[in-house]
Design a protein that fits this description.
Radius of gyration: 24 Å
Oligomer: single chain
Strand order of the largest sheet: 2-1-3-4
Shape: elongated
Strand content: 15-25%
CATH topology of the largest domain: Rossmann fold
CATH architecture of the largest domain: 3-Layer(aba) Sandwich
């Protein structure tokens, strides 16, 4: 038998819930050698049996989020039949909510991803973030919920995309000492602007890795510590001129920084 551990993820929809839960748990066992196999839109017994039979060939656990009650029972029965470990992620929560609300769940797969107004708002926000990324079109700044400013490698784009998935329209603009700050930025309300910064050591390490990924030498000015300090000093001066709040992203996860941005700007209502 293969020495690796196998994690089979089954869902009668996209399977994102099971994937997120599994990833959060697996991160606590980073030294283990494991393989993840994900199966979406599994809705019949033949498909389940094929997957469980495959799982039985390895040292496996089957994680599943299925709202179709009959399908849940099929997965449990087949896992027991094949001697495969399993964990039903969703049913315990649904059972608790049944008691809490005094009502039964709809048991309809895919309800998280229905094409409602919220979905289309999120798509629009993502398109907005792409269109107005990295200062490509300053005309969009006045339509943004948030405008992120920062020198290279201060997480502007990742934050823009993360917030876009929360239905927040974000534009971001790079700060470069040799390029004057656009007048459009000074015309924006201060509660829209967020300055991003990072520690010199972190920036140095990140930029060196970025250059390596591009197949370039790390000796270029971009990753030079003197250059980094110059850029940080320049950004700090701009932030003071604008009077905008500044977040140091060093040692912060994207989610943590995004939460701070929403709190500062009063956009907490966007979190759905």
């Amino acid at each position: 038998m293969d020495d690796r551990y196998f994690i089979f993820i089954l869902s009668d929809s996209l399977g994102e819930t099971a994937s997120h839960v599994a990833r959060a748990a697996m991160n606590q066992f980073s030294s283990m050698d494991y393989v993840v196999k994900k199966y979406n839109y599994v809705r019949d017994e033949d498909a389940v049996e094929e997957i469980v039979a495959e799982a039985a060939k390895h040292r496996s656990i089957v994680l599943f989020t299925t709202v179709i009650e009959e399908l849940t029972q099929i997965i449990i029965r087949l896992c027991k039949q094949y001697g495969v470990m399993y964990h039903d992620i969703l049913s315990p929560v649904l059972n608790e909510f049944t008691t809490f609300f005094g009502d039964r769940p709809a048991r309809k797969p895919g309800t998280m991803y229905k094409l409602d107004d919220d979905y289309f708002e999120r798509v629009a926000a993502i398109e907005f973030a792409v269109k107005y990324d990295d200062g490509k079109d300053l005309r969009g700044l006045k339509y943004a919920d948030v405008v992120l400013l920062g020198i290279s490698r201060t997480s502007k784009t990742p934050l823009s995309m993360y917030l876009a998935h929360k239905n927040v329209k974000v534009a971001n603009v790079p700060l470069v000492p040799e390029i004057p700050v656009a007048r459009e930025i000074f015309q924006l309300p201060r509660n829209k602007l967020i300055g991003l910064t990072n520690s010199p050591d972190k920036l140095n390490a990140i930029r060196i890795e970025r250059l390596k990924a591009l197949g370039l030498s790390s000796d270029v000015e971009y990753a030079n510590m003197d250059r980094i300090l110059l850029e940080l000093d320049y950004a700090e001066r701009i932030y003071k001129q604008l009077g905008c709040p500044v977040i140091n992203v060093a040692n912060k996860a994207i989610e943590e920084t995004a939460s701070i941005i929403l709190e500062i700007t009063g956009l907490n209502i966007k979190l759905k």
